Amino acid sequence: MQGKGFIKFMAILLGIVCLYSLSFNLVTYNVEKKAKEYAKGDEAKEKAYLDSMATVPVYPVFGLTYQQVKSKEINLGLDLKGGMNVTMEISLAELTKSLAGNTSDENFNKALQNAQVQMNAGGKDFISLFVNEYEKLVPNGKLADFFVNPDNSNQLSPSASNSEIKSYLNKEATSAIDRSFIILRSRIDGFGVVSPNMQKQEGSNRIFIEMPGVQDKERVRKLLQGSAELQFWQVYQNEEVYGILENINKTLAVSVKNHVKDTTAAKAADTTKNAGGKLAGLTKGATENKQDTSANAKAAEAAKSNPLFSVLSIPTYTAENGQQGLRPGPVVGWVQQKDTARVNAYLHSAEVKPLIPGTLKFMWGLKPMQGTKVFELYAIKVTSLDGRPDLGGDAISNARYGYDQNNRPEVNMYMTSDGAAKWKKITAEASADPNNKKAIAIVLDNTVYSAPTVQNEIPNGVSSITGSFTVEDTKDLSNVLKAGKLPAPAKIVSDFVVGPSLGKQAIDSGLMSFVIAFIVILIFMAFYYNKAGWVANIALLINVFFIMGVLAAFGAVLTLPGIAGIVLTIGLSVDANILIFERVREELAHGKNTAVAIREGFKHAMSSIIDSNVTLFILGIILFIFGTGPVQGFATTLCVGILTSLFAAVLISRLIFESMIEKKSNITFDNNVTRNAFKNLAFNFVGHRKLYYTISALIIALGVVFYVKNGGLHLGVDFKGGRTYIVKFDKALSTEDVSKKLTEKFEGEEALVKTAGTDHSLKITTPYHISDQDPNADKIVETALRKGLDELGAKYEIGSSQKVTPTIASDIIYGAYGAILFSCIVMFIYILIRFRKWQYGLGAVIALFHDVLLVLSFYTILDGVLPFPLEIGQDFIAAILTVMGYTMTETVIVFDRIRERLSQHGKEDAAHGEERIQLINFALNSTLSRTILTSLTVFFVLIAIFIFGGDSIRGFIFALLIGRIIGTYSSLCISTPIVIDLSSDKDKK
């Protein structure tokens, strides 16, 4: 074997990378285990412990902090951890209207309305749709009349063509989406979500946000859909505010002292539980747990005498004379992230409010100081009687990031004409004292993004902002400055909520399916292939290690479909070994010695292995491109698994065999039971092809009958829009009774109710209020749902909920169509290139459509019969594409055997009909053992996932199960035999 040294080097290198990537999970596990032991069930103490460890080095070798290590571990998706994800849509219609000065022109607004209707029906580019609609309504109309103004005169001229306006609008739309992304990200950061995941959905005006652990739906919706407000404020200096903070600290100390006296006199034994007073909740952390260490006791005592200053540090510096002084600048305090809520409570308490003048309000900085979890507190100066800021975001005309003369990142800000005049006055006041130049705070959503010091009066409205910025900081700040320029409202068009109990159940069921499937494969391979089977098992163990390590290295989010992808990859990874082992057994049967047989087996199997894995990998890429959320998770693990499987099953197993040959070990590929399996097979697959065509046609016809009977396919919520809830009851309920009661509460709108695994768990779907633009629509629907459920006389828990608007649904439908058609085209091209016969390519594609129709037929026939819903949704499309991959894999292997047989006889093609029939039958029979064995291993895996993998993916796995059976049947009885019927009449004769 050539290149053994290089393969060993790559295996060791990949192993080190995977070990390093997975080590973060081990480190965080150890830290969190200690936190649980310390807290003894107290969640507040556990969180406080982890917060205190955030900046402490916990990785002994590399000195990484807990916060850094936590960010590098494999994150769990919502279906495993619980939480909420939303898809936000930026309203380009309102943005366009705002750019046009909110014109009342009838044709303009009609064009906007028509474009939005087309977008809702599955359109892609809103700006193009709008321009086209306007030109239809006003053939010679000039859009420049609406959009050109003094503020954009450097970008547009009054004579700009409609195509130039279109280009301008596209740039503004992209900018608006980028700005919205920055704003939403800052809001999520402020919400305190651990490991949030945000993605701009390229080619659309949507942003996907995933928030593990978040359950407060109303708070999230209010937070994300609120309008952003950019403001500029003057600020107080540190020395101007210190006296006020000192006074607050003294007042709080007296309140705490009185509080402790009162509660001690009342009941000394239980100060925490029975404490009254307005500051009881704030001082709890400082007065409980007397049995803690002396350090904690001292900290508690310090918190009594200095409640505010025990959690808030005043910025100071050491002067030249060695004395401590207050640090100049707008930052008046430093606070650990875990203590910000306590400081907020102090500053808003009844005792403290009278001490804070009306011209002062406190605001937090956006991010913690670099490398810490410490936030800066700013003192904002209110100079107007109405409490408004000195300048609003509408004063900004543009902002750009770049570099100054010293090549340092900076932001250039441009004001409107009105804004420039106000800006001149503000900057003049801030820079009036040459010995005490002051800062101006740039605030968005009551959070200070930056507070640059003003060096001089700025008369022309063009400002340069510099500081300790990274390039990313300047990009963010420039986007924030532009955020206040134009309104681009964001609304939630889909959301998905999973309760923590459902997440825990998903983890347990996912791990169970993984373990069982893994054990089944190991036993099967060891039994069927004897010692060679153990070589495959070692390669399989290494493969699983590589898969998990690569996923961790790329920061992938592990979901339940992702686990299904890993488990499925386990079944598929043995496919390469089965191909090799079956070829080795053929060579051994020809009388060759073991070493030669192994070498020839690897050599002859390689073409089939490459072709089959490439086709499945292409399907995985298509799944990733066209899918979202769980489908992408499945596609990611599938693609990673295919790559690592090739490396482990082909190269590493070859190394093991080479080592065994060198040691002259006895290598066996069978046993007494399996030795003669699949020998001397001579099925006439081609001769009976018309029978197979008839069977398939009858099943499809039956599917059509049930399609009409059932009123169409059972589309999931992500294909038709609506809301879905998974509700668990404490007893079994009739789906008809639940549906009747909920339809009544939903004002006559349909409530489709189906069992979800057991009679105690129901899946409820309704289109009630799904097109309602009212921000309270979600609450209205959930209130009606709970009213109906309350009247059923059973205890219940809403485990998960999902909302998809018709706009998203139409996009998903078109994406699904595109995925299937695109995959068929790619498969046809690949086979045409590899086998140079269009009959092969077309035969394979016809078989793909045949498989899709059969799976759909079984879905319509069995819908309502099985105890779980058979819905056509995104997961189903993922299953369909995977089934197509199975069929292509099987078909390509048969085609490879045909090509090999022709090559052995010195031919490029079997030109005559009878010869072609014999050749195809030979190829099908000689690969039958591999086809059956691979199908069985994958089938075992799917059965394990189906039984133990949980309710949430049972419908998806069922599609894979029947698809696997259909794919095997199709590759043997349809795709390859159909090549005969695609040949010319002369060839048939």
Multimerization state: single chain
The residue fraction in helices comes out at 55-70%
Terminal residue distance: 46 Å
Low-confidence stretches: 263-293, 985-989
Counted by DSSP, the helix tally is 33
Count of β-strands: 23
- Mean pLDDT figure: 78
C-alpha geometry: globular
CA radius of gyration: 34 Å
Biggest β-sheet, characterized?
A: 8 strands, antiparallel
Secondary-structure content class: alpha+beta
Walk across the major sheet and give the strand order: 3-4-2-18-23-20-22-21
The proportion of residues in beta strands is 5-15%
How would you describe this structure in keywords?
globular; disordered C terminus; five-stranded mixed barrel; 58% helix; eight-stranded antiparallel beta sheet; 23 strands; alpha+beta; 33 helices; 989 residues
Q: Could you characterize the architecture of this molecule?
A:
- The protein has 989 residues and is of the alpha+beta class.
- Helices cover 58% and strands 13% of the residues.
- The protein contains 33 helices and 23 strands.
- An eight-stranded antiparallel sheet has the order 3-4-2-18-23-20-22-21.
- α28 (874-904) packs across α29 (913-926) and α30 (928-948) packs antiparallel against α31 (954-975).
- The model is unreliable at 263-293 and 985-989 (pLDDT under 50).
